[in-house]
Structures are given as C-alpha cells and as structure tokens.
Hints:
Blueprint: H1 51-177, H2 190-199
Amino acid sequence: MSDSGEQPIFEQPVSLEVEPADEPAEEVEPEVEAEPEPPKKAKKARKPMSEERKQQLREQLKRGRETSLANRRKAAKAKGTFKKAKTLEESEKEEEALEVAKIRIAEAESRKESREAGKHARAEAAEAKALAKQLRLELDELKTERAASKARKAAIKAEQKAADDKRAEEAAAREAAKPKIAPPPSLPTGRDLIRMMRGL
C-alpha cells in the first residue's frame, strides 16, 4: 500500500521522551514604574477677615442652628404624636394585662398565705399539745416529789419527837434518882432583923 505519492504512515518511530531543559529559566519580574506624584498645589493665602464679616458669619451660624433645632423639634413632635397615637392602644392593652396579672398575683399570694397559715396553725396546735403533755408530766413529777418530801419531813419529825421524848424521860429519871437535899434555912432579911430588934 505504499504509493510514491503518499507518505507512509508510522514510518518513523515517535519518541515520547522529553528533553530535559538545561537550566531553569529565571523569572524576571517586570519593573513597575513608580507613578509620578501629582504636583502639590500651592495654597493660596487667605485674606484676613474683617470683624464685620466675622460677626455676620456668627449671626448666620446662630440663625442656622436655631432653625435646624426648631425643625428637629417640630419633626420630633410630629413623630412623637404619631408614636403616641400608635402606642396608645398598646399601652392600654398592657395596662389591662398588668391589672389582670396583679389581681392574679394577689389571689395566688392570698391562697399561699392561707395555706401557710393553715400549716402554721396545725404546727402550733401540735406544739401546744406536746407542751401540755410535757407540762402534765412535769406536774406529776413535781407532785410525787412533794409527796416524798412531805413523807421524809414527817419521818424526820417523828424521829426527832421520839428522841426528844426519850431525852426528857432520861432527864426525869436522872432527876428522880438524885437524893433530895433540904434547902438551907433562909436568913432573916433586914426587915426581919429590925422587927426582931424592936421586939426586944
């Protein structure tokens, strides 16, 4: 199939090898040309202002401030009235809701207080019962102590009386056992002596 007019297909083998580059090419950064700075304009010297011009500018500034303040107040007033008209219904609803909430809170607090009062009353009643029981026990103990004290005192008195009676009997027996001594004759008194002398 080789014709002289046509070139043969795949006549020469194709090599897929890539020839290595001898040296890596250095990347050259393009130089950025510096932008030329705009020429500085020379400031014109201001002419000195006269006092009349300064005063006129001050008055204009003052008038401008007053008018802007008046305009701001007017706008704020209009805005405020619009807001008032808009929020009036909302505020009324909020007040009604607040009143209802206050009433409910008061009812809840009263119920809570009544429950707490009932709890306290029951607790106080229980404490009173316990106190009465304790006082009764203490009173019974005091009565038994008094009875025992009275019995002890009566026994001591009986012992003392028996001891006194015994001592009296012993003293009487001792007195009875002593020999009786006749009293010495009484000496005449001064009157008796005078009478005796007169009788002589």
